[in-house]
Design brief:
Blueprint lengths: L11 H4 L1 E8 L5 H11 L21 H9 L7 E6 L2 E6 L9 H7 L4 E7 L6 H12 L4 E6 L8 H12 L2 E4 L1 E4 L7 E4 L4 E4 L10 E4 L7 H5 L2 H17 L5 H5 L3 E6 L8 H11 L6 E2 L4 E2 L7 E9 L8 E9 L1 E3 L3 E4 L4 E4 L4 E4 L2 E4 L2 E3 L3 E6 L8 E3 L16 E7 L5 H14 L3 E5 L5 E5 L3 H14 L3 E5 L4 E6 L2 H10 L4 E3 L5 E5 L2 H10 L4 E3 L7
The chain binds guanosine-5',3'-tetraphosphate.
Length: 534
Amino acid sequence: MLDQSNRPALPPEIARRRTFAIISHPDAGKTTLTEKFLLFGGAIQMAGQVRAKGEARRTRSDFMKMEQERGISVSASAMSFEYKGWRFNLVDTPGHSDFSEDTYRTLTAVDAAIMVIDGAKGVESQTRKLFEVCRLRDLPILTFCNKMDRESRDTFEIIDEIQENLAIDVAPASWPIGMGREFLGCYDIVHDRLELIDRADRNRVAESIKINGLDDPKLAEHVPAEQLATLRDELEMARELLPAFDRQSFLEGHMTPIWFGSAINSFGVRELMDGMGEFGPEPQPQKAAERQISAEESAVTGFVFKVQANMDPKHRDRVAFVRLASGHFERGMKLLHVRSKKQMAVSNPVLFLAADRELAEEAWAGDIIGIPNHGQLRIGDGLTEGEALRFTGIPSFAPELLQTVRAGDPMKAKHLEKALMQFAEEGAAKVFKPAIGSGFIVGVVGALQFEVLASRIEQEYSLPVRFEGSQFTSARWVSGPKAEIDRFVNLNKQHIAHDHDGDIVFLTRLQWDIDRITRDFPELRLTATKELMA
Ligand code: G4P
């Protein structure tokens, strides 16, 4: 977390914003929880009408999955809604079970994350990976232990596992009373309330009773004697063994408060939302190469963290998702596109509210706006009111797997090129066009991304494609003095390709080749990633 000391109070409009993502292992309940957030945030009227099963539904963003399969329209990578005076911006993390750059970049746009774990399964592989990404950014994390209506692990065991596995302190914000069939609800430790589950109606909010500490006779009216005795024992033990919630430690990413609940039964969800509002971080300062940008600065600044194409199948336009780092944005503003040094009138920005996208008349630091464009806006680009700021921290990963891709129908090569360029712009893959020969080479970070790409090209462009092994295994971007690059390219034609920006890439299968070039062309730089900033 950046230095917060001496930070002045934020303007109320900014201070009430909470921008966060939900991370989880597939099936832990992220989609269900998201739906309940939208329900309690007034963004949708009803949750969980349609369910689809199987792995296929995870290849697209979870918001799209909800839209397609549940008949509700969210159509976005970020949703904004009001909750008890807070403005929540929930940013979708892509649903692939493979780690991808997309996920990482999404987490550069948020100030906090909610980690959902399945009470029976505890910390799973994907939870751990995503958690590590959050940790790299010191993101504050709230934990939701889901599916308490099923047989779950012992509460202490779950907490222990998180502490051991993720090396983070865990402070219980609520404590479950029973589990599985016997699950009654939770004791809200933060507010001293008894929260009781209503199993009859899954969208109904549970009963909440104010309690004056554990000796309050009201407890016995609602909790059977045996369970009450266990609750008292456990809470006493928890007090002795577990740290109390410390907001500073949470904001620094060292401690996570945990809530227990059941997303499908709407149980524990509002307490979690309250927790995000009460304890969650305000819009945080953002880093640029030149300086740190604070949310309260009056000039508008923001950066593109995601580009999505084909959101509206009728238009081949793109939407660039911009996280506002500072200021008060108003529709129609002219902003400097720092990379191209051109002014852009932002006349039709969209905010993703309620049931549909809406024109954003205004937005504040912390908000995510979508800017439709024809490809000018790229991931990592900065927008400002004139200052040449280069935002940092949006990483580009080295492609670790390379494959050749061909259209099933050779006549469709042009279509394939268009599709690939789109995905390259979205940051979904690296695409290289070899200087000699036909076809394209695609580079990704995780093997599953090839499948995702093949299915998207087929769906969005009606173009069956084949991925095949490539003779190359590594890609290096080449930079240096122009004459030297020209000489290098001439001597290595078989290994040269261009990426979607036209930049020169050296492809090889031998580390030896790379070492040789470093020796023979000392003025050239070969890098495994390309800086996103110009
Ligand atoms: P994901 O986005 O993290 O992948 O999870 P998702 O919300 O789609 O939930 C995965 C499954 O878990 C869903 O079951 C969902 O209904 C169920 N689920 C979510 N929250 C709870 C909960 O609090 N309690 C219980 N018991 N189940 C919950 P599904 O896809 O319909 O099928 P199945 O896995 O039940 O067969």
